[in-house]
Amino acid sequence: MDMPALEIQLQTLPNQPGVYQYFDKEGTIIYVGKAKNLKKRVSSYFTKTHDNGKTRVLVKKIANIKHIVVETETDALLLENNLIKKHKPRYNVMLKDDKSYPWICIKNERFPRVFSTRRVFKNGGEYFGPYTSVKTVYTLLDLIKGLYSLRTCNYDLAEEKIQAGKYKVCLEYHLGNCNGPCEGFETETEYNENIKAIKEILKGNFKDSLQQFKKQMRDLADNMQFEEAQKIKEKVEVLENYQSKSTIVNPKISNVDVFTIMSDESYGYINFLQLSYGSIIRSHTLEIKKKLDETDKELLELAITEIRQRFHSKSKEIYVPFPVDLGEDIKVTVPQLGDKKHILDLSLRNAKYFRMERFKQMKIVDPDRHVNRIMAQMKADLRLSEEPRHIECFDNSNIQGTNPVAACVVFKNGKPSKKDYRHFNIKTVEGPDDFASMEEVVYRRYKRMLDEQQPLPQLIIIDGGKGQLSSALKSLDALNLRGKIAIIGIAKRLEELFYPNDPIPLYLDKKSETLKIIQQLRNEAHRFGIEHHRNRRSKSALNTELETISGVGEKTVVELLKHFKSAKRVANAKLDELEEVVGVSRAEKVYNYYHGK
């Protein structure tokens, strides 16, 4: 499929946060930007008149747009920063000092220090972040300082040096900010318990710390130490209000390629994320047209080789959703949880959005082709003799046997045709008998269509298993329509389709568009039927008691309900209030019914 025109790309962008990249006709990246809503932001470049001359030149040069969908604005900000530093696009403002975002480091040492840094070193410790605001970092560090006593000195606290009495406690110890590990006043185990709790806080897991502080707060309050309890309460409030860190970048994930696949009957969509030093520096989605019935594994292996060659990737490790065979030189990881799984999910999300946009673009450019493709697919999947351009689906609704109704929804060319929907109140069946009800509505529907010489559908879908299907077939036989219209039944497990005279159901692929349309039909029939059923039930429940009063007719009931708004208020109304609405004679009848003579 060729690259769609810019106008079509703009129409199909998602309303999600993300990063967009503009390319010129040579394929060079010329601008990177972030957006809370990709569609609105990117469209604004092409719909507004720009005062800035450089922006006008930029817009003229845009030949292609790519985007990466992320979860939050913070993620978009971080990703934009990474891509600008990697590609140095011509129209982006470059930070002259190339400042990076701040991190919080827990140093790799005995009695670790906790501090902020803008530089990430391998084996320099454990890093958390990055944070988009220095203020957030200092707030967190103040919070940690307030919660736990940590050292701030840069002494080498080796055990033999402490035992030799090499260090003396400083002012921080006397102020109560440090427990004095330099003189052995605090054990390594106690200190590491605090570090463990701090790591959980930095990961956004406050559960353990909150429980611990709430217990402390209760103990202090029980001992009448209310000032100390208030201080702990303030710590708890700060902890509860703090928002968790962004997960777009993790320094532990270094120099890795991420690949995911989303496929349908005709195409496979493979997304590639390239990570360098924990940062996403590239996103690309490849579309592969299926020649035969290739599996996702075959398509993914083919795409990985192609993409790695195209982008000259030398990464020794890749993340994929399932195992693939790529030779012994590449380590294949299938993440199950944590940040690695989060990155894999992000890649899959981008593949899904790419596929959705392609479908939207195809609908705009060639709507007939899109419909023809789906109709041909349904004909093949459902083993029909002709394309199901006109489909009708029937569903029964009765709750505890009351007010039995049925619904018929109609799809034309794969889309709902709401003007053709019909409701049926069951007339000939007493009590809840779904089979007899189905027989009645199918007969009534097609008897009328034959009488009025309306075009018949190519496919009838019965929401129910073999029993419902048999009932519908009786009606088709009675109307001499057997064999003229294809008919199938769908069981509760939606992918099971039943055909007349065939005891074995047909199973549809859960990812197929045919199943999606059948699902949509069934859901519409449910919705439409239940809506009508509720209306009838509530109307009858509301009116029943009032209408049973001797000498009170439908008009009186409507007047009373209009005025009093509910049957309960009518029952509680005073005689003079009723008289004002319906006159003396009828007011007495209603009043006496509820209150006795």
Task: Give descriptors for this structure.
about 600 residues, alpha+beta, eight-stranded mixed β-sheet, five-stranded mixed β-sheet
* Structural class by SSE content: alpha+beta
Flag low-confidence runs.
Answer: 94-98, 243-248
User: If helices are DSSP runs of H or I spanning 4 or more residues, what is the number of helices?
Assistant: 20
The total of beta strands comes to: 19
Distance between the termini: 83 Å
Largest beta sheet, briefly? 8 strands, mixed
Mean of the pLDDT scores?
79
Q: How much of the residues is beta strand, in percent?
A: 15-25%
Tell me roughly what share of residues is in helical segments: 40-55%
Instruction: Supply Rg.
Output: 35 Å
Task: Name the overall outline.
Answer: extended
Sequence-ordered SSE layout with sheet pairings:
Blueprint: H1 6-11, E1 18-23, E2 29-35, H2 38-47, H3 53-61, E3 64-69, H4 73-87, E4 103-107, E5 114-117, E6 125-128, H5 134-147, H6 159-163, H7 171-174, H8 188-202, H9 207-222, H10 226-241, E7 256-263, E8 267-276, E9 279-289, H11 296-310, E10 317-319, E11 331-333, H12 338-365, H13 367-381, E12 390-399, E13 402-412, E14 415-416, E15 422-425, H14 434-451, E16 459-463, H15 466-478, E17 486-490, E18 496-499, E19 502-507, H16 513-547, H17 554-564, H18 567-572, H19 575-582, H20 584-595
Parallel strand pairs: 7-10, 10-11, 12-16, 16-17
Antiparallel strand pairs: 1-2, 1-3, 4-5, 4-6, 7-8, 8-9, 12-13, 13-14, 13-15, 17-18, 18-19
Helix pairs in contact: 9-10, 12-13, 14-15, 19-20
Describe the structure.
It contains 20 helices and 19 strands. Strand 8 (267-276) and strand 9 form a beta hairpin. Helices cover 45% and strands 19% of the residues. Mean pLDDT is 79; it is low at 94-98 and 243-248. It is α+β, with helices and mostly antiparallel strands and 597 residues long. Strands 12, 13, 14, 15, 16, 17, 18 and 19 form an eight-stranded mixed β-sheet that branches. Strands 9-8-7-10-11 form a five-stranded mixed β-sheet.
